[in-house]
What does this fold into?
Amino acid sequence: MLVDHALFRDAPRTSRPSHRHRTAGERLWHALRALAGAGAVLVSQRETPWASVTFSGARHSFTLRFDEADAIEDSERLIAALPEHPFHIPGHLVADASVARADHSLLPAPRLELDIDILLLEAS
It folds into this structure.
């Protein structure tokens, strides 16, 4: 079988798959995960648009679960560090970061669940 290679040479090339850019919410989750430690389990995440007269952005709500003693120690460090942590999200700034709820149980096994609210504003 003979193949005309000119057909392939002149054919349009398929492009490489484009790398999907992370959203600000995804970047925020990765930064929060780094602060929370490897034992943090994301239970839920919600993003709600937010705006004032001068600013716009979104309120991000995360529910994290920490099982076992080492992970719970990480969560306690997260609670202490979160309000003043300098998040670095390109094109955005964190206006507020707080723990809205902490639910600690010991039985049947140690567990701590946190609701975290972060207000992420678009930098102008």
Notes: The two ends are 63 Å apart (CA to CA).
